[in-house]
Amino acid sequence: MKITCNNICKSFQNNSMTLNRDVLRGISFDLESGDSLSISGPSGAGKSTLLNIISGLDDPDRGDIYFDNLCFSNLKTNEKTKFRLQNISLVFQSFNLLKDFNVLENIMLPLSYKGLSKKDSEKHALSALDNVDLSNFKLSSVTTLSGGEAQRVGIARALAMNTKIILADEPTGNLDKDTSNSIVNSLVDVCKMNKVSLVVVSHDDSVLSKLNINKKIIDGKFI
Ligand SMILES: Nc1ncnc2c1ncn2[C@@H]1O[C@H](COP(=O)(O)OP(=O)(O)OP(=O)(O)O)[C@@H](O)[C@H]1O
Ligand SMILES: [Mg+2]
Fold it and tell me: Closest residue (by CA) to atom 31 of ligand 1?
């Protein structure tokens, strides 16, 4: 699915409520269906903010987002949620795994929200776990996982959703170089094969080199 961002602007009030800080000051890009984009930039530059806006978890102050010809920005909150569930998978910087559920259940749960049967959810979840080399952990409690393992479960959860868009926030931040390379390779391969548009926030040169377009946020703008 094609992603278009037109002039996205976002500012936040700081704690003293006196100053507005312009975090994003006019971000525009087109990402064709099946292409991949990396976003880098210093801590606090607005990378996670931009992903939140693209996914509709946060609203821009100005600017529009289109998916193919659909103006996402014009949708109501519940319509955005519905669209996201069907079309966008997120890999969060902080994993967002559910502590009361095991690894397999964490991946299956959003699939059941999407309407898949238990049998199909399990099939997709097991295949995604295989992609991140964690099949042996399917019955583990997520509270026992290392940071890198939890990160890979987050990636498997996104892959299993089988959406046309994946947004990943530092998906290899907790992985060693070899694991990072193999996980990014399988993420990029799956996306290419299924024509998934992939947006990855990362500082890692070996990740950036595998994606089609590389952008950096500096002073609220893409360079
Ligand atoms: N809800 C909020 N209220 C106020 N300020 C916010 C809010 N969310 C983000 N910010 C501020 O906006 C700026 C950008 O935050 P963001 O999380 O997008 O940065 P980032 O580029 O992802 O950084 P990192 O590399 O550390 O993850 C930061 O200065 C942050 O403090
Ligand atoms: Mg961030």
Answer: 44
